[in-house]
Amino acid sequence: MKSNNNNNGNGNTKLILLHPYIQKQGTSNRVWLLAVLTFFTVAFLLTLIYTRDALVRSPRSSMRSVVPSEGIVAAGGGAAAAASAGAAVPPPLPTSVISTLVHYASRSNESFHMTHPELKSISDVLRKCSHPCNFLVFGLTHETLLWKALNYHGRTVVVEENRYYAAYFEELHPDIDVFDVQYTSRAGEMDELLASARELARQECRPVQNLLFSECRLAINDLPNHMYDVDWDVILVDGPRGEGAEAPGRMMSIFTAGVLARSKKVGGKTHVFVHDYYRDVEQICGDEFLCGENLVEAINGMLAHFVVERMEKDSFQFCREQNGTAAAAAAAARSGL
Which cellular components does GO assign to this protein (predicted)? Predict the structure, then answer.
């Protein structure tokens, strides 16, 4: 009987054992749930941020499709490129604004500045230039800001010999592209450099080429690569310094302007202006590489205006007429205009 009682007592006692696995399973489920919630939260936040940035950028993108790009218009530039891209051609700068800018620029107190007839000649060409107009200027001068203003729908690029002045000017006016170059020539070496160019007229100094790869002594080949692919509509040679035999002289800039004008991929003509045309270097190199047959006007013996047509790749002569005939034509044009 005693043993039966003990068995009954043990039977009434209930023992509940909790296995550790049950606790681990509950904790694991909570960890997985937290991970899933974290993943979806992060995904939601990233989606929200991306959508917001897209909405912010979209108005700028639509504006760029209407407003002309500030970048250089490469081969095939001008109105044809704008039309092919489906962009609207912007209206030209009002004539009254152009006249006002030219007027006040010509009345400057600066010692070295262009006269009103010189400024008007260049501004007239820029006004008629197809938009966007590619304007290349050799030399940082008093008129640099004026060129940028007159060509406000296009791109104005300035090449300067003084790297420190170029950096200073670009810091003051970051909307203007200024590139510094190293001129290896000297004005006193003009005869020697011209003789070398004539000797290599069918090789390194030919009139149609990519100057980036040229070894001609008169070629400027250290500009940014993309500048050699541009079809320049207007080129102004107003630098580097040309006074004195030790000055760099403008042989290289005039030669480079002549090659760029003749190497255009599309578009027939380039307007090339040479300032300080009363000096020997400017006159002789202008006759040699821009040609008297292309001289349109020479204003007060200071500014020469050439209109240079593109040439075929196999051309090896800058001027259609012989140098003597071209020089005579240039002299007649200078005296008559």
Answer: Golgi membrane
Instruction: Tell me if 156 sits within 8 A of 122, measured CB to CB.
Output: no
Burial letters for 220-234: b for 16+ Cβ neighbours within 10 Å, e otherwise? beebeeebbebbbbb
Tens digits of residue pLDDT in 14-28:
555 555 544 555 566
Query: Which of the listed ranges 62-71, 90-99, 328-337 does the model predict with the highest average pLDDT?
Result: 90-99
The count of C-alpha atoms lying within 13 angstroms of the C-alpha of 57, restricted to the half-sphere facing its C-beta, is 6
- Give all strands (DSSP E) within 131-254, no chain letters: 134-138, 155-160, 177-180, 234-237
CA 132 to each of CA 71, 72, 266, 313: distance values in angstroms, whole numbers, following the listed order: 10, 9, 15, 26
Output phi, psi for 96, to 5 deg.
-65, -35
* 262 phi/psi in degrees, rounded to 5: -80, -15
Most confidently modeled of 47-61, 86-100, 278-292?
278-292
Indicate the pTM of the whole model. 0.70
CB < 8 Å & 24+ apart, contacts of 321-329: 321/291, 321/292, 321/293, 323/287, 323/288, 325/292, 326/287, 326/291, 326/292, 326/293, 327/287, 327/292, 328/292, 329/292, 329/293, 329/295
